[in-house]
Amino acid sequence: MAEGGGSCEICNKPARQFCSSCRGVFYCSRECQKQDWKNHKGKCKPYVLLKHPVYGRHLVATRDIRAGEVLLKEAPLVVGPKQKSHPVCLGCHKRVDGTTFCPACHYPLCSSACHYSRFHKDECGVLAKASGKIKIDKFDSTAHPAYECITPLRCLLLRHTDPRKWQTLSDLQDNVENIKNNSEMEGVIQRNTVDFLKNFIEYEGAEGSEVFRVCGILLTNSFEVKHNGQRIRGVYPQAAMCAHDCRPNTKHHVDQDLYLTIRATVVIRKGASITTTYTNTLWNTLQRRKQLKLSKYFLCGCRRCSEPSELGTHLSTLMCSECSVGHVQSTAPLDSNAPWACLKCGHQVQARTVDWGDQMLYKELRGVEQSTVRPLEDFLRHYQKALHPGHRFFVEAKFALIKYYGNHPNYRYRDLSREQLEKKVEYSRELLGLADTIDPGLSLLRGTVLFELQAALVALSKMLLSNDIITKDGSQDYMTEAVRYLKEATEILKHEPEMENGGLDAKLKVLSEELEI
């Protein structure tokens, strides 16, 4: 950030005037600033990179940033399969079925044309030198260890193919020491990447320690992105400088060309950190902090994590088994071993018991039947005496239900009962209140909930009116509210990749036909 003064960007004279947006360059006069604008506007950013004792390097706003403003758009340094990846085409990352293989390295491809892909051409010659033939013969969703080395190898090859990118990558944090403190992760990296590249592939372009460090850089800095229908990872060095917060002030998306765009979801005041989330916003504190420790090697201490009620959302809160009406919360949320206690009767529960219950409920909810809503409805009924209505697992079940009702082939709006429509409206309102607290503004969560809520209001209004339960004036109240929500939802969702290029219009057309409006 500009302090004191510097040299004019144009004439090198002493200067104290600076760009008010990025505060990164100086000018001796207004004329010099105007002269430099054509060159500077492509580099001008509303933030600077600073160092924080907790966050490390992070982005700080140099001016007030409005909600919806694009902060950066960035191409990846490298993209490739995730650490645990099922077989994908190394040319385009599509699913493969085993009908086509690269003639040189024997990895499966989606077509022979991908042998010449920009993603695959440099690594192919290295992989082809393997001491034995790569054997990949299962093409389901099971992760295959032969893919763990691909993205690290692509990083290492940048040293010769693009030295500038390699230097940028090398400057990123690696967390090697933290990884080595995790014996399981250290062993996986050593066996499936370092030893595989050095011994089986016989790669001589880097020492084992450098291969390991690159794996650390990827674990610490990569984003999960979607490319050709598959989830892969990419390194975006500027975006990686956003600090984490469990209540972020930005959102990001990646387009088909793999450019990542970061957009402000709320007003970000000058001097505030620009934040994203490295975990799932709907998870509770226990799971978020555990995942951050395992994947990013730090424990979050943000305001949401520090409050037992998670800003009043109760995503972690249990119901007391002793008095039946009290709320059970952690006595010290930033201490994973702290006991949990009922706020009414004082009954305590050990932290490991809460953790075990969390894991069991996670497995149960993930294992429900996908073709019907009954298991989700049963889940909500079954655990209503054990979990707070705002608990994370109830939130996930309700979020799944609002997307089922009206969207699933077996639950079209015309087939829904009044009770189901009223439940969709009720759950959507609850989730909207939650989003306003933990992911406010122009977030994808709010946009999605608003879209589902407005559709449910229209459908419920039509049903009630057709059965003479409400008057035309009453129906108009529903429709007015729905229009307001639809307007806000479309403003939020219009920039999402699947909604661009006519996607949102197509979704609205399908919805209009379904609701007969």
From TrEMBL:
Q: Which organism is it from?
A: Petrolisthes manimaculis
Keyword set, alphabetical order: Metal-binding, Zinc, Zinc-finger
Q: Which residues form the SET domain?
A: 45-279
Domain (MYND-type) ranges = 8-44
Q: What name does the UniProt record give this protein?
A: Protein msta
Domain of life where this protein originates = Eukaryota
Q: Which PANTHER family match?
A: SET AND MYND DOMAIN CONTAINING, ARTHROPOD-SPECIFIC, MEMBER 2, SET AND MYND DOMAIN CONTAINING, ARTHROPOD-SPECIFIC, MEMBER 4, ISOFORM A
Tell me the InterPro entries matching this sequence: SET_dom, SET_dom_sf, SET_SmydA-8, Znf_MYND
A GO molecular-function descriptor? S-adenosylmethionine-dependent methyltransferase activity
Pfam families listed in its UniProt record: SET, zf-MYND
